[in-house]
């Protein structure tokens, strides 16, 4: 009988139910069924289709396995061939590397030779330029020498009469040759030049001495004027210093008088401080440890004692005010100016 629900998933062969649990409620027991989860084949599917398919699959497997073995053998042969090719490639690579190194070395040598040749070319060019300049200079010198030779010949021809005169003088004088005459003339000319130089030097020396005398006279006159001015200035300073001295003498005399008067007051005040310190120390039953001229320490001691007395007086006032009495009424204010004196001493 038909199912109430269609099959949701089909197998590889088209009618094999993969999910029979979802269609259990649609099955009826049949004598043709051995199990509840087996579906009755359809009319267009052979009963032994699965077995046929398994046989076909097994045949395909064996065929694929044989093909795989053949491919493995071919792959092994190809791997050996590839290894041989790789070895040949490595050999070829090594040969090419050696060739490359040789070619590279050859190129480097070519580059070095090119640079060396360029340097040599530049040096040869510079040397050629220098030589060409020297050749041109020699050509110019040759031209100048030829011109000078021509002028010199003209001058020789011009001075030929003088040569004849010199020869006649040599023949008539005591000179043996033309060179002796020329040397004598040169010595006379040099002596004349030296005499002229010596004369110029003496003239310069005389002029220098005269100039020094004039300068010395001018400096001496200027120095005398400066000394006169300094002397007048010193006289003015002396008169001013003398007047200032008189003023300071009067001031010092007044200061001395004032110092003597204040010294008396200072001694009296120091004695008073010493006496007051001794009284306070005696009051406290202490020995007088401070010396007479140790005024600062004595004043500190007196100030401390006066502060203690002021504190006592304040406390007494406070106590009497609480009891309703007065320190003034009982005659206890026997030192009315103690506080003022203490404040003055502390200042």
From TrEMBL:
Key words, A-Z: Coiled coil
InterPro entries associated with the record: CFAP_domain-containing (IPR051147), DUF4200 (IPR025252)
A UniProt-annotated Pfam family: DUF4200
Coiled coil location: 217-244
Keyword Coiled coil among UniProt keywords: yes
Domain of life, source organism: Eukaryota
GO cellular component, one term: cytoskeleton
Entry protein name: DUF4200 domain-containing protein
Biological source species: Chironomus riparius
């Amino acid at each position: 009988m038909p199912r109430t629900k269609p099959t949701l998933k089909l197998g590889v062969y088209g009618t094999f139910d993969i999910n029979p649990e979802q269609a259990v409620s649609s099955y009826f027991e049949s004598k043709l069924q051995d199990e509840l989860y087996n579906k009755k084949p359809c009319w267009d599917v052979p009963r032994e289709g699965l077995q046929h398919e398994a046989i076909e699959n097994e045949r395909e497997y064996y065929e694929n396995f044989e093909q795989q073995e053949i491919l493995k053998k071919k792959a092994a042969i190809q791997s050996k061939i590839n290894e041989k090719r790789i070895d040949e490639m490595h050999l070829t690579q090594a040969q090419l590397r050696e060739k490359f190194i040789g070619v590279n070395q050859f190129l480097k040598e070519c580059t070095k030779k090119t640079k060396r040749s360029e340097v040599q070319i530049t040096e040869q060019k510079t040397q050629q330029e220098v030589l060409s300049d020297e050749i041109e200079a020699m050509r110019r010198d040759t031209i100048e020498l030829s011109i000078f030779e021509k002028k010199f010949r003209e001058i020789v021809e011009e001075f030929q009469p003088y040569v004849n005169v010199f020869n006649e003088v040599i023949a008539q004088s005591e000179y043996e040759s033309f060179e002796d005459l020329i040397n004598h003339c040169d010595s006379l000319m040099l002596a004349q030049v030296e005499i002229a130089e010596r004369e110029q030097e003496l003239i310069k020396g005389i002029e220098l001495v005269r100039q020094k005398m004039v300068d010395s006279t001018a400096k001496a006159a200027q120095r005398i004027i400066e000394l006169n001015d300094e002397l007048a200035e010193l006289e003015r300073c002396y008169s001013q210093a003398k007047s200032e001295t008189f003023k300071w003498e009067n001031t010092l005399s007044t200061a001395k008088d004032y110092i003597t008067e204040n010294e008396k007051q200072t001694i009296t005040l120091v004695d008073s401080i010493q006496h007051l310190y001794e009284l306070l120390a005696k009051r406290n039953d202490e020995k007088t440890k401070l010396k007479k001229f140790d005024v600062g320490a004595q004043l500190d001691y007196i100030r401390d004692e006066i502060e203690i007395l002021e504190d006592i007086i304040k406390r007494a006032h406070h106590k009497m005010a609480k009891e309703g009495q007065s320190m003034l009424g009982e005659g206890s204010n026997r030192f009315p100016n103690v506080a003022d004196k203490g404040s003055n001493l502390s200042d």
